[in-house]
Predict the structure.
Amino acid sequence: MFISYMKHSPFGGSRRGLLILLLAFAGMQVGAQDLAHYKRVIKELASAKYQGRGYAKNGANKAGIFLEKEYQKAGVDGVTLQPFKLDINTFPGKMEVEVNSKIQNSKFKKLTPGVDFSMREYSPGIHGEFPVYHVDTLNFDADRMFADLQKPEYANALVACEFWFTYRHKEAFSRLQKAGECNNAGLIYTWPAPIKFFKAYGHRVVEKPILWVTPEAIEGVQRLRADVDNMFLKDYSCFNVIAKVEGERHDSCYVFTAHYDHLGNLGDKIFYAGANDNASGTACIVTLAAYYAKHKPQYDMYFLSFSGEDANLRGSEFFANNPVVPLSQIKYLFNIDMIGDNNPVQYCECSDEGMRGYQLFEQINAGKKYFTSLHRGDLAANSDHYPFATRHVPCIFLENEKGDAFQYYHTIYDTYKTVRFDSYEPVFRLVTDFIEKY
Ligand SMILES: [Zn+2]
């Protein structure tokens, strides 16, 4: 219909044609996905105001309050906050590292946090000047390494080694992490740029500091100075945001989930914006809430914005243990995480019970060509669908396959500038079509 009016050139003659055209435009705006709204929410959540939606600077909680208001503006029937607590290691203070690749007392060179180095999430702070011991990975001999570390020139050394090598020689390297086992001060894992920062195991602090450094930044370095503060938050309060749109029936429901937390700060200047991870999914379910608030659904709809995901699925785990609706009443759950990319293939995972609906997803996608294909991987504990999948909820996890944005995953470059918007509309249409037909 839209195309045929174009052919008849409504702008030239018929006023009625123009009116119908305008109505068709308006209908599209309220009728389906809303890219402008989507972009606006991503831009807001990725801004400095929320400091990477972590804990030490209260960024996640500020983002949660923004979402509460955003759901209210979207016209949902109710929004509640579900508080829970977590223990989390953070780095909100000093983050200074400099290295010297020549003999002692020559000039030190500053490394840039987030670019040249970051911290292991469970590392304590580190203060002082240290010799650097480079592990010989070509002719590795654990006994020789421990003997070397007893030499006076390596007293209190930081042991530098490629991360996967330490992983393959866990036994030796776990000794280097424990106090009293060896007199090294800590560890340096090398990781190719762009350097990453994780949070999943930040619920504790280990005895010795561990830094992630790029191979280029640590090559030939003999001494390292560091002034890095950590702050361990015990029983930190955060919350899930739960929005509800009432359907005609209340005996079952559909659930959308997306985590709104991210990695927070690395020192007092750097924050991880997390535009793709996961301002993208968060914004997507906000626009879905707006859509269903305007188009009364058959069944109740829940929109769960989780906190604590990048800290190891803490918000979704808490909700799954304390659901506001019996999990057995969930007809289907859609977890949307990292769709801010531009791969034409859509990655997904299903719970066993979710496989019931998988053919329908494939059918819809094949018919409408939203994505060139769906690529289903094995169920894994990699996002918020997992606590529901293990509790037998029919669910699907939707994440865009690796596109131009994926290289920035968990780096300081995952920003509003690098996030891609291509997958929003196809995801939106895929899930709304699914609900119509399921
Ligand atoms: Zn993440």
